[in-house]
Amino acid sequence: MKKNFLPSLALALAAVANPLLAHAGSLTIDGNFADWGVTNNGRVSGWTPNAEVLFAVEDQSNANGGYLSPGWGGQAYDAEAMYLTWYTKADNQTYLAIGLITGHDPSTATTANSFGRGDFAIDFGHDGIWDFGILTADRSATLKQGDVVSTAKSDWATGLWSAPGVYDPNNSPYITKVNTGTDVGNAAMAISGRFSNMGTLGGVHWFYEVEIPVTVFGQHWQGDTPSESFDVQWTMLCANDIITLDPPVSTVAEPASMALVLGALGVSGLIRRRQKNTSR
């Protein structure tokens, strides 16, 4: 999977100095990505959102026989871009917002050789356990589209591949949808109609937009900032292509990040002292 992440030293330092990387204002959850700053202008620049939005882009073509990673499928199974931000609204509640652009048609049925849409998965703490699923479709009589579900590893269905290019559904580690778990709240969700002119590779696309009240995450998110680092992932039910967004720094100043800042301040202070000593 090709990845184009935004993290940089400047972003890391900015995040420590100002922990809340938030949207300038709340988003309208209507399936329109204009307020994210994304544009379907037929150019590479169209993928880039507003400056305060974190994102990953994997715009892939049908080259190499339609191989995507870990599986095949070309444009019809391409997970192309994910976006993430959070903000506090007029109700004084903080919300996590996730956007997704994919070439996979949300109306795709699950049959012998066809696989429908998967659920958003969130792993707090980077421990490989997907703690929450945000359902993009009804999964049972009680777990419905828009539900936020607290999950354990065993609560997830998996895809078709045990490793990139290795078809082995019985041993796949790639999670796809929630089978069971505890419903802890609801997210606002909208899925767009099809649109074209996205990026330079063509094809049709769809946009998923989700807004989650962070109170559903319990101890993982206290106040207006997350309590620990986390990943967000999405794929379709076959897991032919997987996109993961790992926010570059914890919004809680982690020791390594804080040490970097303190170290920089220390060096700066040392230089100033030396300059003062040599000027005598």
User: Which word captures the global form?
Assistant: globular
Count of helical stretches? 3
Q: Using DSSP, what is the number of strands?
A: 18
- Our estimate of the beta-strand percent is 25-35%
Protein name: PEP-CTERM sorting domain-containing protein
Signal peptide: 1-24
Organism: Zoogloea oleivorans
Keywords: Signal
Could you explain the architecture of this structure?
- This is PEP-CTERM sorting domain-containing protein.
- With 280 residues, the protein is α+β, with helices and mostly antiparallel strands.
- The chain has one domain (34-264).
- The protein has 3 helices and 18 strands.
- It has a 6-stranded antiparallel beta sheet, with no helix packed on it. A 6-stranded antiparallel beta sheet has the order 12-7-6-5-17-18, with no helix packed on it.
- Residues 1-20 and 250-280 have low confidence and may be disordered.
Quick recap:
With 280 residues, this protein is of the alpha+beta class. The chain has helices at residues 9-17, 63-66, 255-278; strands at 4-5, 54-57, 79-88, 94-102, 120-124, 132-134, 147-150, 156-158, 161-163, 166-167, 175-178, 182-186, 188-191, 206-213, 221-222, 225-226, 230-235, 242-245.
List the helices and strands and how they pair.
Blueprint: E1 4-5, H1 9-17, E2 54-57, H2 63-66, E3 79-88, E4 94-102, E5 120-124, E6 132-134, E7 147-150, E8 156-158, E9 161-163, E10 166-167, E11 175-178, E12 182-186, E13 188-191, E14 206-213, E15 221-222, E16 225-226, E17 230-235, E18 242-245, H3 255-278
Antiparallel strand pairs: 1-2, 2-3, 3-4, 4-14, 5-6, 5-17, 6-7, 7-12, 8-11, 9-10, 13-14, 15-16, 17-18
Keywords: Signal
Protein name: PEP-CTERM sorting domain-containing protein
Signal peptide: 1-24
